[in-house]
Here is the input.
Amino acid sequence: MDEKRINEALEGLKKKQKRALSRAISIVENHEDGMELVLEHAYKNMNDNALLIGITGPGGAGKSTSVDKIIEEFRKRGMKVGVMAVDPSSPYTGGAFLGDRIRMFKHSSDDGVYIRSFGSRGAMGGISEGTKNALYLFKNFDFDVILIESLGIGQDETEITNFVDVTVVTVVPGFGDSVQIAKAGMQEIADIFVINKADKPDAQAYYNQMKEQLLSIPEEIRPLLMTTIATTGKGIPEMVDALIDVGNRQLGKRAQKEAARVRHEIRSQAMDRIMERIDGDVETLAEAVLERKMTPFRAAQMIDEKVDIK
Here is the structure.
């Protein structure tokens, strides 16, 4: 373990240095030795001051452009903003591929904004394990708002709701899967549906269609339906007003969401540790199964016996 690097990161975190935040995130994302010490510090020193906002939806819906404009609006109101942007991972390095820090470069010189891109690393819930852990690090700082822009992969992307106060699902008219996204799991997690690119010719018809669908949800839990044109900023101030309002009303659910998140993280960490222990055995047993020396069921039983799961 590089004790000097770990200690520098911890000391910097105590002093609220953004450079230390970047260093600590890298340690956590890359599973470096000392990661547990960094996370232990983050967990013990985090605060719940920030409004946590998750923005999800299909690729091409303009999420990053929307986030860019939302940052601007929050900054106009004097609020400090942290941004966690999950991108498709590079197939070579596993790191963030699209680079939201480049797309949002104009905010990089603003001391009131911190933007970090994260690779999805194969995550099927829209946010990777590294992103979830890094959220604890973000909570060590004095951000008023933390935005999590998660990878748009459709109906599988529902996990984000347990990590945020407000979940925004961004869709656009003309996408064949947008109507489906407005159904099923997305209706259950969305606090706000935003139809972006509302200047498109079919936007009003799409708005009416979604509004009709949402009427089937009881009014007390029905998601808001809004429209924006993120490229021009139209509708963004109203959207930020709604984010703050809904966020304040959702604070009562924090304990429930935290309990769900903690259970998930315990399971996830336990499974990671088990997989590390059995990875080599899986390869060996797979060869035996392929050679018809045993069944997959027997191979699984042997692994079960090794890890001594009761």
